[in-house]
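Record type: monomer structure entry
Structure origin: computed from sequence
Chain ID: A
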Amino acid sequence: MEERMHSIHSECALGVSAALVLTLCAAPQAAFASESADSLDASLGALSASADESQAPFSDVSDGEWYAQIVDRAYTLGLLTGYEGTDLFGPSDGMTRGQMVVVLKRLFDNADFSGAPYWGSHADELRLDFPSGNETGFTDVSDGEYYTAAINWAMHYHIVSGYDGTDKFGPNDPLTREQCAKMIASWLGFYGYDPSASYPDWDRSDEVFLAYSDAGDISLWARNAVLAARQNGCMTGVPSDGGLPQFYPKRSLERCEAAKIAVVLHETMHGQI
């Protein structure tokens, strides 16, 4: 289903809630090829871990994996945590839609909007308080869940809109990679980096087919967003031998990939890439 994106609203908000803990236990997925750290330029020297050893306290994040430093950075920034009460991160587990909205909300909580293209001069319009009671109208978003305030925020600022033609958000549904690209593009549009990504009528299909070998599998509504996520470096696809990378639009986003996205967006906000 389409995660529809809207144009930038004249009023937006920065939530400043307490840290929301990702407690949903996503079931482990079968192994898939994942995004790599290739798009993270050496300028990400802000990564707190050394090149050889991760500092995050996760027993299932091996030092030699491409995502070890990224998970460490995301953990240090408070953007992603492990499973509550365990020492596990679940790098290959799938992200849910509710979990990803929480991550994006944490990015906003930590953002410095003084240098944002739009918000630098409109900071007084930011709404700071979002309750734990459901304000969205979605019938499947319960009061008091770990994701409720974040979804209230995301709806208020048009970061998400739920499943098209329904009153459902699907907070516990797996988040597909193309749905995640929509959320990223909405975030970039909100912050002011790529407002054009918010206009789905601008058909950039030709560019998508030049970027990914499986472009035909990417939904039309997601193609602009996929390009925005690629240009920003958040989602660059899975390399293939000698050919174009693959995007795998219908596959669930893995938690290690979500960590990469969170780090890239954070460094984008703070001018480090």
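Annotation 1: The two ends are 32 Å apart (CA to CA).
Annotation 2: The first strand starts at residue 238 and ends at 240.
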